[in-house]
Amino acid sequence: MMNKTTRIILWMIGILVLVLIPKLFGVYYTNMVVTFAILSVFALSLNMLLGYTGLLSFGHAMFFGFGGYGTALALKHIGGLGLLPAIGIGVLSAVVLALILCPLVVRVSGTAFAMLHLAFGQLMYVLALKMYRVTGGEDGIANFPVPGILTESLKNSPENFYYMAMIILCLCAWMMWFFTKTPFGQIQVGMRDNANRIDYLGYKVPQSKAVIYTLSAMFAGVAGSIYGLFLNLVSADGSLGIVMSFVPIVSVMIGGVGSFFGPILGVAVFKMVDELILRYTESTELVMGIILIVVMMFMPMGFMGLINLLKKRIKAWFVARAEMEKVS
Amino acid sequence: MNPVVSTYIVQGIYGITYGMILFLIASGLNIIFGMMGILNMAHAAFLMLAGYFCYQVVQITGNFWMGLIFAPILVAVLGVLMEQLFLRRVLGSHVGELILTMGIANVIVAGIKKIWGTESLPLQMPDLLSGMVSIAGMGYPVYRLFVIGLALAVMLFMMLLLYRTRLGKVVRAAVSDREMVNALGININLVSMLVFGVGTWMAGLAGVVIAPILTVFPGLADQVGMDAFIVVVTGGFGSLQGAFIVSIIFGLLSSYGVQFVSQFAPVLIVVFMAIVLVFRPNGLFGAKER
Fold first, then answer.
1. What local confidence, expressed as pLDDT, does residue B290 receive?
2. Contact residues on chain A for B229, CB-CB shorter than 8 A
3. How far B273 CA lies from chain A's nearest CA (Å)?
4. Domain ranges (residues) in chain A
5. Mean pLDDT along residues B158-171
6. Within its chain, how far is the Cα of B5 from the centroid?
7. How close A275 gets to chain B, by Cα (Å)?
8. DSSP secondary structure string, B173-225?
9. H-type helices in chain A, by residue range?
10. By percentage, how much of chain B surpasses pLDDT 90?
């Protein structure tokens, strides 16, 4: 339907808009876009498990948190560390955690998988609270230096931070999208729908699961690392707690499970509720609750499902009109 | 008696009290999950709501016993309404139902904040239960003993209902194979409704008895709900004895943990859960995945 030129033009426009955002809008909206991008990558990484592989995790925040804590601790204790190595250390710690958990979690699926993650997520959360010598307990780690790549420091220049964060996050999102298109990425859908079949076809299910799991943890780690840098604060409640585990689950579910862009849409709804509703009423909880209820009752495939349905309707309407004209 | 020993015993009673309350909540959560496969995230919100209802009843009538009787029933009615109006109509997966119950929990918390405010409201326990009783030369708080007794009575009642009546037979059969029971000509929807009502009623009861101990505040659901959830997970979904044993262990772990390693009491519980789940991913007494 869409030929190559229009696609390239659309891409150019998209990139141009992203580049121009900090120039056109103020610091406030620039920061909003950064949070949006971070949560989107986090939700996308969860969707790799929940939407594509069919594994529900109640503890995805532990990778997010490990990314943040790894980066923050590295920057705090290693003097003169560059920004990219610091992010690398955060991501690496999330990946190492995933590799440690792999042998335990790939054996199970369904409820047991979710519960095992609940257990480990809570364990990490409680440990982060109690080991206050390392993690700062409830206060978390704040005011660590944020070095720049080319510039001096990113601490007081939201514009430069924006470009740094967006390049990394967009790259991550693109990599996840690319991954779903590879033959290996297709296996995950097969495992969701019928794991036995995939086994019979000669693919190793636990090993493939482990690779997907680690990749998902890696992207969550990137998101967490940048989130920590962005706020210049990592805390147990802000990045490791159970609330943080549910944010991506809810985003994926209201955005549309199983479609790639659904989670991004879900995060957008989330942010919109935060931004818009807070101006009119105090109780965001009520609005969020009602949105969850309505979406789950009437749109089981989320907002993405609604959009697809509308697309189909409009197409059908056009086809019907063409038929009518042909008849008359 | 030796004062050290008596401290241990009193701590033990505190632990068992908390364990029994956890059991009341967890078993409600458990039968609902076993019956319908729904992880009811609104369970703890209903518990909190019962605490507030009881507070309101006590404000109006000045009688704790009225609250103890009516608040759980009110909450159970609301639970049944939720099941009938919302949960029954969800089209998607179990994750969808989970998100829906989360939404309902959000609405309940928002409503509570709107009506009763965000301060924690004290609830007087009745005079009859507020003193200490001395057994063998030691004083025990009566209220805690009362809670233990009440929870035991409810548990006995549940056991009789589940294992000695025809209804219990149907429920147990439905837990293991819902479609088959439906095919045998039993109105499974009616049974589900009943089970949901009883489960929520138990949560309500727990909410009322916990209110004089912890006072009622909007964070109550998070605090108790997480513990109850952990109990169900560790004990195994769909297993009452698992829930019972694990809730007692948890109660004791938390009360003795505070006494001996006060810093790391919460860690103990989570470590216990992690170890159990590593070796038995479906929980201590959990059945294999269906």
1. 44
2. 118
3. 6
4. 27-259, 289-328
5. 86
6. 30
7. 18
8. HHHH-HHHHHHTT--HHHHHHHHHHHHHHHHHHHHHHHHHHH-B-TTHHHHHH
9. 4-24, 27-47, 61-77, 83-105, 111-130, 132-135, 158-181, 183-193, 195-200, 205-231, 242-255, 262-272, 278-280, 284-298, 302-327
10. 6
Backbone angles phi, psi at A148, to 5 degrees: -95, 170
What pLDDT is stored for residue A222 in this prediction? 93
A285 closest CB neighbour out of B90, B109, B277? B109
Average pLDDT over residues B5-34: 85
What's at B124, amino acid-wise? Answer: Q
State whether residue B120 is helix, strand or coil. coil
pLDDT digit string, tens, across residues B70-110: 888 999 999 898 888 888 777 667 788 888 888 899 899 88
pLDDT score for A41:
92
Answer yes or no: is pLDDT of A323 > 50.
Answer: yes
Distance (Å) of CA A98 to CA A51, A56, A93, A172, B282: 19, 15, 9, 18, 21
Cβ proximity of B252 and B20 under 8 Å: no
pLDDT digits (tens, 9 = 90+) for A10-24: 888 888 888 888 778
pLDDT at residue B288 tops 70: no
Dihedral sign, CA of A271, A276, A277, A278?
positive
**H-run or E-run covering A277:** none
Q: Are B145 and B10 contacting, i.e. CB atoms less than 8 angstroms apart?
A: no
Burial of A124 (0-12, 13-18, 19+ CB in 10 A): buried
Using CA coordinates, name the residue in chain A closest to B273.
Answer: A119
Q: Is B40 in contact with B215 (CB distance < 8 Å)?
A: no
- How far apart are the C-alpha atoms of B134 and B140, rounded to whole Å? 6
Could you give the maximum distance between any two Cα atoms of chain B, in Å? 63
Quick check: A101 and A120 in contact, CB under 8 A?
A: yes
Determine contact: B83 vs chain A, CB below 8 A. no
Mean pLDDT of chain A: 85
Q: Are A22 and A76 in contact (CB under 8 A)?
A: no
Q: CA B92, B94, B95: angle at the middle one, nearest 5?
A: 90
Q: Kindly state the percentage of chain A with pLDDT values over 70.
A: 97
pLDDT of residue B136: 65
Give how far the C-alpha of residue A11 lies from the chain's centroid of Cα atoms, to the nearest Å.
21
- Tens of pLDDT, residue by residue over A206-215, are 888 889 999 9
State the ipTM, two decimals.
0.80
Token pair, residue B35, equals: 């019956």
Contacts of A129 in chain B (CB under 8 A): 266
Which tokens hold the place of B151? 């929870």
Side chain identity, residue B285: F
Minimal C-alpha gap between A201 and chain B (Å): 24
Tokens 């990425």 belong to which residue? A185
- B106 close contact with A: CB closer than 8 A: yes
